[in-house]
């Protein structure tokens, strides 16, 4: 029989067969690893997105209080009543001694009074800031909106505490490092290109603006700032809210 017609001679050599099997197993392992890494990143993306959303919603709560002081009173009173009811249940169930019940009630009253004394705009600014500092990258709709809202609520806080005659040199009121007293950060971005885009919107509206890199280390800073004069802050915020097409609450900066 012709050797070319012998089926045994058509079989690959052992070395070739071994290389083919190794190649197939290596490719399968590579794809398994890639899918595994992609799965981990997907879970992290979903988790950080969910956390950013919750932080942003908490900030929105204080923003609503800033816009409507009567809502602040209603919500604070409701929180106080729920706290009272919870402590009463703990006491009646024997899980809270009379002495500890009195102590917890005093703390609850103090927290309620403190909530009504301090301007909610400061809390809103801090929650917005935490949204993008703690829960990005990756950036998402919540962190991008928070980068616009944090400076707006911080500016509103400055004016609220000034109106109440309170000191402003706190975490909320400290000026950003390297900026003059009359400068204000109106927006921040993780990348320079995004900050340049925001500045271009303000340039088009005739609002003087510049970009600057936050000198603080990553994680403690904001990336890149868009800086405007304090006298034009309200105009700049409104222009960016419209130009960046961000769905954010309207805040009056008095």
Topology:
Blueprint: H1 14-67, H2 69-92, H3 98-117, H4 120-134, H5 141-164, E1 183-189, H6 192-204, E2 210-213, E3 224-229, H7 233-243
Helix pairs in contact: 1-2, 1-4, 1-5, 2-3, 4-5
Keywords:
mainly alpha; three-stranded antiparallel β-sheet; 3 strands
Sequence of secondary-structure elements:
HHHHHEHEEH
By DSSP (H or I, 4+ residues per run), the number of helices equals 7
Task: State the helicity in percent bands.
Answer: 55-70%
Structure summary, number of beta strands: 3
Strand neighbour order, sheet with most strands:
1-3-2
Main beta-sheet strand count, sense and barrel state: 3 strands, antiparallel
Terminal CA distance reads 100 Å
| Overall form | flat
Q: Overall pLDDT, averaged?
A: 81
Low-confidence stretches: none
List the domain count as a whole number.
Answer: 1
Strand % is: 5-15%
- Using only C-alpha atoms, the radius of gyration works out to 29 Å
Task: Write a brief caption for the model.
With 254 residues, the chain is mainly alpha-helical.
Structural notes for this entry:
- There is one protein chain.
- The chain is mainly α and 254 residues long.
- It has one domain.
- It is 63% helix and 7% strand.
- The protein is built from seven helices and three strands, in the order H-H-H-H-H-E-H-E-E-H.
- It has helices at 14-67, 69-92, 98-117, 120-134, 141-164, 192-204, 233-243; strands at 183-189, 210-213, 224-229.
- Strands 1-3-2 form a three-stranded antiparallel beta sheet.
- 26% of the residues are buried.
- The model has no long low-confidence stretch (mean pLDDT 81).
């Amino acid at each position: 029989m012709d050797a070319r017609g012998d089926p045994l001679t058509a079989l690959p050599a052992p070395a070739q067969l071994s290389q083919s099997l190794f190649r197939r197993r290596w490719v399968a392992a590579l794809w398994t690893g890639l899918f595994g890494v992609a799965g981990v990143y997907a879970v992290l993306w979903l988790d950080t997105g969910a956390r950013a959303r919750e932080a942003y919603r908490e900030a929105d709560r204080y923003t609503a209080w800033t816009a409507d002081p009567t809502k602040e009173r209603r919500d604070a009173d409701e929180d106080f009543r729920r706290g009272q009811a919870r402590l009463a249940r703990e006491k009646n169930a024997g899980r809270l001694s009379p002495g500890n019940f009195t102590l917890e009630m005093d703390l609850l009253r103090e927290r309620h009074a403190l909530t009504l004394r301090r301007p909610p705009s400061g809390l809103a600014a801090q929650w917005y800031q935490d949204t993008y500092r703690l829960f990005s990258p990756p950036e998402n709709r919540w962190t991008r909106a928070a980068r616009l809202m944090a400076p707006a609520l911080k500016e509103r806080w400055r004016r609220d505490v000034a109106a109440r005659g309170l000191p402003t040199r706190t975490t909320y009121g400290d000026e950003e490092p390297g900026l003059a007293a009359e400068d204000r950060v109106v927006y921040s971005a993780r990348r320079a290109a995004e900050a340049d885009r925001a500045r271009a919107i303000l340039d088009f509206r005739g609002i003087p603006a510049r970009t600057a890199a936050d000198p603080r280390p990553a994680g403690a800073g904001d990336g890149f700032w868009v800086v405007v004069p304090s006298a034009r802050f309200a105009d700049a915020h409104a222009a960016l809210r419209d130009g960046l097409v961000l769905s954010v609450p309207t805040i009056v900066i008095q």
